[in-house]
Specification:
Layout (H helix, E strand, L loop, with lengths): L1 H12 L1 H11 L5 H8 L3 H21 L2
Helix pairs in contact: 1-2, 1-4, 2-4
């Protein structure tokens, strides 16, 4: 339940970050694969991924 709630909040705050996180976590894709799939620059993708990971980690650790 906490993961689902955190995911919904991330989608509301940053749809791009949520999409990147979904492809990385659920799709098990690499940074290169996600960048190619979404047709975005690798540097931008890495920033989005870093923000999404930090946000999810912080949010889920607070729900414990």
């Amino acid at each position: 339940a906490a993961v689902e709630q955190a995911w919904r909040e991330l989608e509301a705050l940053g749809p791009g970050q949520a999409q990147v996180a979904e492809l990385r976590f659920c799709g098990c894709l690499t940074i290169e694969e996600v960048a190619t799939l979404l047709n975005i620059v690798r540097g931008y993708l890495k920033r989005e991924w870093a923000v999404a990971k930090l946000w999810l980690r912080k949010t889920l650790s607070q729900s414990d």
